[in-house]
Write a structure and sequence with these properties.
The chain has 257 residues and is an alpha/beta fold. The protein has one domain: TIM Barrel, CATH 3.20.20. The chain has an eight-stranded parallel β-barrel with strand order 1-2-3-4-5-6-7-8, surrounded by four helices. Helix 4 links the parallel strand 3 and strand 4. The longest helix is centred in the middle third of the chain and has 22 residues. It is globular, with a radius of gyration of 17 Å. It starts with a strand and ends with a helix.
Length: 257
């Protein structure tokens, strides 16, 4: 099992010193799919990183709509082609499709049509990802952030419909708990779970910092389901001073689950 932090490259030295395995950067900050090749400096930054950049989140900017009347699959294809090419150059293996601003369904827009639009985007992106041997994972986002694909069970409907080896599912403990989703949904999805995010439900702080989240049942399902990939901490208040403590907590929880 590898443990990483969702953060920017400037924190990579401290993360490495604390024993973390990798960094999960953001697509918008590092890969910048709307920036021309001659202006893009992400590869230079990545080469200087003391830790691998195994994953990247924030896949699609809010300005580039996936659902609704202004969704443009041609523009999305061009954007994704650039992002995936750059991800492969850096050595990134997993791209996280949360992107609430891009996928949220406009008011009064047909939900069934939006569902099909996301499926079409996912299949197109997975086909492109296959060229570079990358995996795209759809992230269930709680209703407070997104009005579509709020649970693992809902996200799995796209995974099953797209039915592509390069399109899988992510589970995030924070969103999972916020939606009060039953563990049986995660158990059913385990064959398709290809990435994990964790944070405490209370305040979305780093694991263990609130003292109010029980990770054991959640991690036990992952372990019993044979999960052996990566777990990234995604907690906005996460600071360098907490790095060692949080990593120790996660490793203990995983060992004891």
């Amino acid at each position: 099992m590898q443990f990483g932090i969702c953060t920017t490259l400037d924190h990579a030295p401290a993360a490495r010193a604390a024993g973390w395995d990798y960094i999960e950067e953001s697509v918008q900050g590092l890969l910048q799919g709307e920036v021309s090749d001659d202006q893009w400096k992400g590869l230079e930054k990545a080469k200087a990183s003391p830790l691998p950049i195994a994953c990247a989140n924030m896949l699609v900017p809010a300005s580039l709509k996936i659902t609704g009347p202004t969704a443009d699959l041609v523009k999305l294809r061009e954007y994704m082609s650039t992002v995936l090419k750059r991800a492969a150059m850096i050595g990134i293996e997993t791209l996280v499709f949360g992107s609430a601003g891009a996928r949220n369904v406009p008011e009064d827009f047909d939900q069934a049509h939006a569902w099909d639009q996301i499926a079409e985007f996912a299949h197109m992106s997975a086909d492109l990802a296959n060229k570079y041997k990358l995996t795209i994972v759809i992230e269930p986002l709680a209703a407070a952030e997104s009005n579509i694909a709020n649970t693992v069970a809902e996200a799995m409907k796209w995974v099953e419909a797209v039915n592509h080896p390069n399109f899988k599912c992510l589970v995030d403990s924070y969103h999972f708990w916020l939606e009060d989703e039953p563990l049986k949904n995660l158990e059913a999805a385990m064959p398709a779970i290809a990435h994990v995010h964790v944070a405490d439900k209370a305040g979305r702080v780093a694991p263990g910092e609130s003292g109010k989240s029980d990770y054991a049942p959640f991690l036990r399902v992952l372990k019993e389901g044979g999960y052996d990939r990566r777990i990234s901490v995604e907690a906005p208040p996460f600071t360098e001073a907490q790095y060692g403590k949080v990593l120790e907590f996660l490793k203990e929880q995983w060992k004891d689950s």
